[in-house]
Design goal:
By secondary structure, this protein is α+β, with helices and mostly antiparallel strands. Helix content is 53%, strand content 9%.
Length: 958
């Protein structure tokens, strides 16, 4: 009975061991069964007494859908026999559904036989649901055999035969099958007969656009779209047919018809169409554009949003129709206007002249009805005005994007649409405001802002949203203003807004930097007012740490780069402040020939970074390190000297700091590893921890590392793993017959973990060396040999075998540095390093500390963590939410594929009662997972910032 059969009894597994004495790995093999579980359920169909039981059994077959290749044909045969004897249509639908699942998921099934069986079953079927499911099954199965053109034509013929069905569901499935499976050949391979047959198929699909059911009409148009996407050329004669569907009563039909109008308009832009008056002709793309504009006033939101989206992607439209979308005024007095010459010519043709003897003898012959007058098609009038004023956010967003796309390619349209985009800055939805700001930024090279427009834009600077304010800063920095008054308005408003939102300091600096660079001639007359320069009196020296004064300095100094007339206007303290800003913020302040920075052109060229000079310096630093003829002590001293020189080079030359830091860290690892291995008491734990961290830094913190350099790093990490194993195994363990204490158990576990880490790292290194084609060094070869020989040995035995190899191995090879190496770094802007504010909160509760950091050249931003270290050595790694990681607006991606991100988050701090305030260290780290059993380790990207915290006891009572 079916109730007795259970999945647990039907899906048994047994354990068998692979016959390989050296490894003795456990291998799980599936026991071969006489019949799989799904086949067993299918075999019970003939015992079902009712359709309900058969349906439940088929549902269980669908859940466990697992067939042996030998059982598939028998199962299909039994399902087909039950289909023919089943009276309930629901069960027959489920059987055809199973045919589809079996063909798509079960290996070894013959799809041609399954298609033939499905076609045979639905041939004499009377149920509409069953036929529809059969066509759907044929569609999915045929998609896997699309290369068989003969089979595809057979399936298309089956679908054409079933198109006569009265059910809308069957018709829709048949239309879908024809559009997706009809074989379409490339134009170079098409014969006249093929083209005629394809045109007949297109005409057949188009004929069903007149069906009574709206779902069939929608599917007919969708099928035409599918044929177009697959490469079939649609005829321009379909245009009139599709245009009729734009007034359909159902929005699903209007939506698909809009897409087809857009396709035909872009496919045949220069074809001419005749309007309803029988005289006026216009280009097809213009008429399609006008008809899409008419859909902006549709009753359905989806149709309006789609119409706005399609308007933005229509190309080649005449300027008069584009500009008409921004103007609601179309005609005067609802009468068609004609020239005097046309009116006189019509009077001559009529043969009637006004005699003046009768009243109103010269009245027009007939007044035109307003519905027949069409100076310009009414749909284009104010289409974007309606879209931008729509009540729903989706339509307004699509309209803003469409205006932006059209403005990027048409200067006249960009200038005309500027006022409308500026008005969207006052929208109630933040996303719409952001879209408008980004759109204006993208078309900024086409426009010049006037005073009235700047008033609206600058008013939006008071927005509570940081995204909106920073977007406005980007937009103002990329735009051009019309006059000195406009620039003055911008500066005053930016400085005023900086007092209200001091957290926008970095974004404001970038904004005024771009404003100064692009408006040097307008900044010149404002220089004396901005810098408070008086012709007779010495003004007080401003505070260089004041953010408002820093903004003014950045603006003026960037303008002075393009207008040297400003330089004599600078006072002595301004020149000193320039030197300070140039040293602290070189990316905001350009080079100017004033103060201590005055240099001749030859000196500037000499001071510029020269790749060849840097390369020669690197070679001179490392030329004796790899000299094997020197003694080890001499090489170690030279390595220590090289590390110091490379650290200084990293500070002096930011452009090559990544390469210098990489080689410096590598050299430090070699020095520390050599010292740890030759220590009298064994490798110290703190040295091994530092070595592990430095190896992780070399592997994950640097980008642009070549394959050979990466192989050297991994071989160095193998030595560190071996040193860790030797240190853990050399710890004193329990003697024979003694009870193992808790600490000893921890030592044994550490040794086992170190051995597993060594084995795992060796496997990864072996694959890496084989993939890049690098020969391993002698120590790596020796470790590989020991691991293959001592696969079953315990960690102490493996450590005793590796320790002499480790101590006698020569120093690792220092890779030749590449100038393309870049280092991932982070800088914490908030909280500041010199913050003296004490964070006080009740013990046991949570306090939030605002954190703002900039992370440069990170490969995977999702691996960033915020490390919180408490005074009691507790460490928490917090994962920032995805929306707290934002791209830096000045440079989002780099040439090597890394990203620059901005981290804006809240660091949650909680602890028990402290007797006095203590410091909590906050830093940005990179979570590194090597794929082993150990949890991800943290690699610090910056120095920690200390926040003073004072958890106070909870007060009881009133």
């Amino acid at each position: 009975m079916a109730a007795v059969l259970k999945k647990r009894a039907l899906a048994e597994y047994n354990k068998s061991f692979k016959d390989s004495p050296p490894s003795k790995k456990l291998h799980l093999a599936k026991k071969p069964l006489i019949g799989s579980s799904a086949a067993a359920f299918v075999g019970l169909l003939e015992k079902c007494k009712s359709s309900d039981e058969a349906l439940q059994l088929l549902l269980r077959v669908s859940d466990c859908l697992q067939f042996q290749e030998s059982d598939v044909e028998e199962a299909i045969k039994k399902l087909s026999e039950h289909f023919q004897s089943e009276e309930e249509s629901v069960v027959r639908v489920k059987i055809l559904w199973l045919f589809c699942d079996i063909g798509l998921e079960c290996p070894g099934v013959n799809l041609n036989n399954l298609i033939d069986e499905t076609t045979h079953l639905i041939k004499n079927e009377t149920s509409h649901k069953v036929i529809a499911q059969g066509i759907a099954t044929l569609l999915k199965l045929g998609s896997k055999l699309s290369d068989d053109k003969i089979l595809m034509m057979r399936l298309v013929a089956v679908a054409k035969d079933n198109l006569k069905d009265t059910s809308h569901q069957v018709k829709c499935r048949c239309l879908q099958l024809i559009s997706e499976l009809y074989p379409i050949y490339p134009e170079s391979e098409r014969t006249p007969d093929m083209s005629t047959e394809a045109d007949a198929i297109v005409k057949l699909l188009g004929d069903y656009s007149h069906a009574e059911d709206a779902r069939v009409r929608c599917e007919a148009f969708q099928s035409l779209l599918t044929m177009h996407e697959r490469g079939q050329t649609l005829s321009a004669s379909l245009y009139d047919l599709v245009c009729l569907a734009l007034t359909d009563d159902y929005e699903i039909v209007r939506e698909v018809a809009l897409k087809l109008v857009w396709v035909l308009g872009n496919k045949y832009p220069e074809n001419t169409v005749t309007l309803c008056d029988g005289e006026t002709t216009m280009r097809l793309v213009d008429d399609a554009f006008v008809r899409i504009c008419s859909a902006v006033n549709d009753l359905c939101m989806q149709v309006r949003a789609l119409a706005c989206t399609l308007l933005g992607t229509t190309r080649g439209v005449s300027d008069r129709f584009l500009l008409q979308t921004l103007d609601k005024q179309l005609m005067s007095n609802m009468k068609k206007k004609r020239t005097a010459h046309e009116r006189g010519a019509e009077l001559v043709r009529s043969g009637a002249w006004a005699s003046g003897r009768r009243w109103a003898d010269d009245a027009p012959g007939a007044l035109l009805h307003h519905a027949t007058v069409q100076l310009l098609p009414g749909g284009a009038a104010g289409a974007f005005v309606h879209g931008l004023e729509d009540e729903l956010m989706e339509v307004r967003t699509a309209a803003v994007d469409a205006v932006c796309q059209l403005s990027m390619e048409n200067v006249v349209f960009a200038t005309t649409s500027l006022d409308f985009l500026v008005d969207m800055f006052n929208d109630e939805i933040e996303d719409v405001r952001l879209r408008a700001i980004d759109s204006l930024t993208r078309i900024s090279h086409h426009i010049v802002l006037r005073e009235d427009q700047l008033e609206i834009i600058l008013g939006a600077l008071e927005d509570y949203s940081m995204d909106v304010r920073e977007g406005l800063h980007r937009m103002l920095g990329s735009c051009t203003v019309a006059s000195k008054t406009c620039l003055e308005m911008c500066i005053d408003k930016i400085l005023e807004n900086l007092k209200r939102y001091p957290q926008d300091k970095r974004s404001t600096f970038r904004c005024v930097q771009r404003l100064g660079s692009s408006h040097a001639s307008l900044v010149l007359p404002l220089t004396t007012r901005l810098l408070a320069v008086h012709p007779f009196f010495d003004m007080p020296e401003p505070d260089v740490e004041d953010p408002a004064y820093m903004c003014v300095l950045i603006l003026v100094l960037n303008a002075a780069q393009h207008c040297t007339t400003m330089l004599p206007l600078f006072e002595e303290h301004t020149v000193k402040h320039y030197t300070y800003l140039r040293a602290t913020m070189p990316h905001f302040v350009p080079y100017l020939p004033i103060g201590d920075a005055q240099q001749s052109s030859a000196e500037k060229i000499e001071s510029a970074m020269d790749d060849s000079a840097v390369r020669r310096f690197f070679d001179s630093v490392l030329q004796h390190i790899d000299n094997t003829t020197l003694s080890t002590n001499v090489r170690l001293k030279m390595l220590q000297s090289a590390e110091e020189q490379l650290n200084k080079l990293a500070e002096m030359e930011p452009a090559v700091s990544g390469a210098a830091q990489f080689t410096s860290v590598f050299s430090r690892c070699v020095l520390v590893l050599h010292g740890a291995l030759h220590a009298t008491a064994g490798p110290p734990a703190h040295a091994l921890a530092a070595l592990t961290t430095d190896c992780l830094r070399l592997q994950h913190q640097f980008s642009g590392v070549s394959e050979q350099e990466n192989a050297c790093v991994w071989q160095l990490a193998l030595r560190v793993c071996a040193a860790r194993l030797c240190a853990c195994a050399s710890a004193p363990g329990p003697g024979p017959g003694t009870v193992v204490a808790t600490g000893d158990k921890g030592g044994v576990a550490a040794a086992l973990s170190a051995a597993a880490a060594l084995t795992h790292h060796a496997e990864l290194l072996d694959r890496l060396l084989a993939s890049v084609g690098v020969e391993p060094d002698p120590f790596t070869i020796a470790v590989f040999r020991q691991l293959s020989m001592n696969a079953d040995h315990k960690p102490p035995a493996l450590a005793r075998a590796i320790l002499p190899l480790l101590q006698s191995a020569p120093l690792p090879v220092i890779p030749k540095p590449s100038l393309k190496i870049r280092m991932c770094t982070a800088s914490i802007l908030e909280p500041p390093a010199d913050n003296d504010t004490v964070v006080r909160f009740s013990a046991g509760l949570v306090a939030g500390v605002a954190l703002e950091a900039e992370v440069l050249r990170v490969r995977n931003p999702q691996a960033l963590r915020v490390r919180v270290a408490y005074p009691d050595t507790r460490i928490h790694a917090l994962v920032p939410p995805k929306d707290h990681l934002r791209p830096l607006d000045h440079q989002n991606t780099n040439e090597d594929g890394t990203q620059n991100v901005r981290l804006l988050t809240k660091v949650l701090i909680s602890h028990g009662v402290w007797t006095e305030p203590c410091g909590v260290d906050i830093s940005v780290c990179l979570a590194v997972d090597d794929g082993g059993r150990e949890p991800p380790q943290l690699v610090e990207l910056c120095r920690p910032v200390r926040v003073t915290v004072a958890p106070k006891p909870i007060k009881r009572g009133i």
